[in-house]
Amino acid sequence: MAEKHISAEEMQRQVAFSEKLKELNAAGREKKALVVTYGCQQNENDSERIRGILAASGYGFCEKPEEADIIIYNTCAVRENAELRVFGNLGALKLIKRKKPELVIGICGCMMQQKHIADQIKKKYKHVDILFGTHTLYTLPELIWQVVTQGQRSVHIIDSDGAIAEEIPIVRAEGVTAYISIMFGCNNFCSYCIVPYVRGRERSRDVEDILNEVRDVASKGYKEIMLLGQNVNSYGKDLQSGIDFSDLLNLVSEVDGIERIRFMTSHPKDFSDKLIDVIAENKKVCRQMHLPVQAGSNAVLEKMNRRYTRESYLEKIKKLRARVPDVTLTTDIIVGFPTETQSDFEETLSLIKEVRYDSIYSFIYSKRVGTPAAEMDFVMDEAQIHANFDRLLEAQNQISREINESYVGKEYDVIIEGKSKTDENILTGRTEGGKLVHITGDASLIGQTVRVYIASAMTWYLKGELKK
Length: 468
Ligand code: 5AD
Ligand code: SF4
Prior knowledge:
Bound molecules: 5'-deoxyadenosine, iron/sulfur cluster
Structural class: alpha/beta
Strand order of the largest sheet: 2-1-3-4-5-6
Number of helices: 13
Helix content: 25-40%
Oligomer: single chain
Distance between the termini: 60 Å
Number of domains: 4
Shape: globular
Largest sheet: 6 strands, parallel
């Protein structure tokens, strides 16, 4: 069997490259790095590790590409539009590199695990110096070293299921919430999805490694943690510890300093009664659930290989709400899956009206090379799919607004996360259920838990007043 972890020797070898880079970078003005992330929170978390490696290698950070000595694009392959943005932005870097030939440009992440894309970058984007995939992030120090000392392109992309690299340094986003990956990869092979091909099979991190990371972030003042995995409900199935996801939540909740625990993503087929009990009983586990349904029609769910039915999904929601009546519910929906007919879509619409989610993330189906759905013929044309997408959004906006209005006049505990991006005087925070709340208040409240009276509701957020 393949090793579960990258060896300590190999990790040490990479540390040595980081140290050599740090020495090299110490000469002259401070070298600056820019890491740009596309896609999901797992990718954000990977980018935090990339920043950790760059900081350990003597780089500071900047926000503008023109100021950077190294730029890394961490890419997403879930839908085509994210890929097109990467190609566009990468093309624009050519000009910057022409003016500043010593600029190092790296590209990594899920797009690199698709051979046709990596080949295209190698061939047509000669200004890219470093290519690495999702399984080889820990080798970044060596890859940068090769480029800066030998001036040659370095590529490290492998197709393995990826041994876990513990102990990669990290520079986390400042704030209230720390992201912690508890597992990598996915075994589900939903027929539209590229993730199992680009992130490999499911691998769970050891409980102690996760708990050590939780203790570490708690000691640094993070109050909330977000446990990440493509399918957190199968956490531990590949370990011998006998600890499942519900047990893990209870263990994490014992760490002092952590006030709220969130997690994503859950697969409805693995969503257990035991997990419902933990959400109902454990005070630190937020009464919030993101449970992607993808479609409301059994015919489509079957073609998607989701392995649950509309009825069994609704049954789980009913059970969850019976135990946790105030639970906040969100979901993902794909509109325009190839075999979807108009009446299939109407079933999705009726499902969201029946469940009444707090909000939904809806996506127009995007064909992914190599997945089974890419071979299926479309029933609907683009115009019809777009019209359905708009109808779905409109129906959901009304529901979200109505649900938000039911919060008005009540009080909630809100952890203040920061200032609003559009108005300096507004602070933003979240309720336990994850509802975004805007209040007027002093910046000294950032990071604190405050009692807030909800004065009015918008579609996307609530407006509140600080209780004295
Ligand atoms: N096209 C559109 N949306 C997709 N998703 C995954 N693959 C595709 C695709 N090929 C959506 C699913 C998933 C979310 C993260 O992205 O809804 O839950
Ligand atoms: Fe993709 Fe399905 Fe795995 Fe989610 S569960 S990552 S949609 S294959």
